[in-house]
Amino acid sequence: MKLSKFLLPVIAVAVFAIYLSLFVVKEINQAIVLQFGDPKKIISEPGLQVKIPFIQTVVKYDDRILPLDTLPLGVTMKDNRRFDVDAFARWRIMDVKAFRKAVGSGGANAAASRLEQILNAELRTTLGEVKSSALLSVDRVNLMNSIRDAAKEKASALGVDIIDVR
């Protein structure tokens, strides 16, 4: 009888400690294990993982291609015609450690806000150097690729890859 009074709480504490030390990374996620805020381990493979309870925390990020829809932006073209440009982009987190360092605990929402600023700046820069007729010609594809490449270069500092801009 006395053994069960002692053994039951020990088993309960052990089960609770195991519960706190295990976590699952899904196929659609990447995870970073933080120890007192410092990155210790990056996990990109799905499955059951282990962490030190109370000392390490896990932050999960989406590993899928994410949308970014910008608000309409007024752009003045080279021939002084003004257009409202509605653009969207597709992006993905490539470097979780750099992403965490760049956006902190804000996650995908903070990154989307910064990516929108980058994309809007590149839209203004690129479209401000061409005439309005280029938007309605076959050069439009080259313009989109130019905007994507310039934005991709700046967004790499955030640990993300811009896949497409339209």
Tell me what the structure shows.
Helices cover 40% and strands 31% of the residues. It contains four helices and ten strands, in the order αβββββββββαααβ. It has helices at residues 2-21, 96-103, 107-127, 139-155, and strands at 22-25, 29-35, 38-43, 47-50, 56-62, 66-69, 73-76, 82-85, 88-93, 160-165. The strands form four sheets. It has a three-stranded antiparallel β-sheet with strand order 3-2-5, with no helix packed on it. Strands 6-9-10 form a three-stranded antiparallel β-sheet. The radius of gyration is 23 Å and the shape is rod-shaped. The mean pLDDT is 91.
Short description:
By secondary structure, the chain is α+β, with helices and mostly antiparallel strands. The chain contains four helices and ten strands.
